[in-house]
Automatic annotation (TrEMBL):
PANTHER family assigned to the protein according to its UniProt record, in alphabetical order: PECTATE LYASE 18-RELATED, PECTATE LYASE 21-RELATED
Catalytic activity as recorded in UniProt: Eliminative cleavage of (1->4)-alpha-D-galacturonan to give oligosaccharides with 4-deoxy-alpha-D-galact-4-enuronosyl groups at their non-reducing ends
EC number: 4.2.2.2
Keyword field contains Metal-binding: yes
SMART domains: Amb_all
Residues annotated as signal peptide: 1-24
Cofactor(s) the record lists: Ca(2+)
Protein name per its UniProtKB record: Pectate lyase
The keyword Signal appears for this protein: yes
UniProt organism field: Xanthoceras sorbifolium
Family named by the database record: Belongs to the polysaccharide lyase 1 family.
Pathway as given in its UniProt record: Glycan metabolism; pectin degradation; 2-dehydro-3-deoxy-D-gluconate from pectin: step 2/5
Lineage, highest ranks first: Eukaryota, Viridiplantae, Streptophyta, Embryophyta, Tracheophyta
Family annotation (Gene3D superfamilies): Single-stranded right-handed beta-helix, Pectin lyase-like
Amino acid sequence: MSSLIIFSLLLVVVVVHLFSYATPTKFSAATQIIPEWRRTTTRRELGSESCRTGNPIDDCWRCDPNWEANRKMLADCAAGFGRNAVGGRDGEFYVVKHSDDDPKNPVPGTLRHAVIQEVPLWIIFDRDMVINLKEELVMNSYKTIDGRGFNVQIADGPCICIHNTSNIIVHNVYIHDCVPGGNAVVRDSPQHSGLRGKSDGDGISVFASRDIWIDHCTLASCYDGLIDVVFGSTAITISNNYMFHHNEVMLLGHSDDFLPDKSMQITIAFNFFGEGLVQRMPRCRHGYFHIVNNIYTGWEMYAIGGSANPTINSQGNVFIAANNRSTKEASFLFLFSFFFHLQSTQLLKSAFFHHQVTKHEVLEGEKEHWKQWNWRSEGDMLINGAFFTSSGQKAPQIYMKASSMVARPAAVLIHTPPSSGALLCQKGKSC
């Protein structure tokens, strides 16, 4: 018994020590924010036999040293509910050469001019650039924003709006410090411009859209959400992103009263939820949510929450509660109660709210309704006193609509550090 306790405590120490190297440093505007452990474990330093990690998205394209010539292969690598998002695969390349922005009359060679075109386009960049948008970037369907090869940032202004469109891929862009815009004329197609109302200040806002894939982006410090998906949007994958320094991270579902969100299906996979995050990783309403193989390195309120009876299928994730005094106390109490089979385990853990992974949000007078919501944790690693409150039915068939891909064992995420967020891809080398 004593050896088992010692092993458990050592495991906690090792894992927390491993992720202590995941703290990013904020550099100048021209420098990407990348955790130090990612700087020292890039694939360029690995042999070709080692480049495959079991992440089906990355293994599909990242071993190719000719990725720059084969950019559009990325469109065939999506997994999860957003796997059919082809973006601009069937269109021409569009090269962004200027960081300027004119919302009403976009100039050719700018990002805004590219995304409003009515034909499919694969949008790339000819250099490092920081794009300060003056209003929301309203996108048309069948577009890919592909920042590979350069440090491309959208920052310090309104950011990306995916509104009533389909087949969008946003890849390898650093999005940060987004603010509200609106009450201004914005062009949304070559033929049309109109007055837009005030925006929320999200990093990426997805509204009434489908077949969307957001992959390998870095997101931080926006006015509202980092990624919000609302108003009947579905068939979406949010994968391999690195998020940090933010309060309300992801909102999935418009409101408790908006019933069309019952058809929402979203995959949250291989993301790294870093330091300085508070809540909504994600917060879900009504629909079906597959949260698979993500790493959470701390949260101030909760990691996964929801209301209005969403189905949440959490598989193969690593949840590491914050390493503060209350965390250590809760971890000790949890181990003590577990090994000695105390009946008060849940009460002991509940006393330290910083450790709860989940939050069932209910209206006053409906406090017991959450027990009927189908939330499960399967194969998750709960470290440093983290705990997941399951609810509803346990039968696997209940989660079929919230299952979109095969989960890897959570332990693999510990042994193979993820390379989430925007990548430092170099031409002629595997990314």
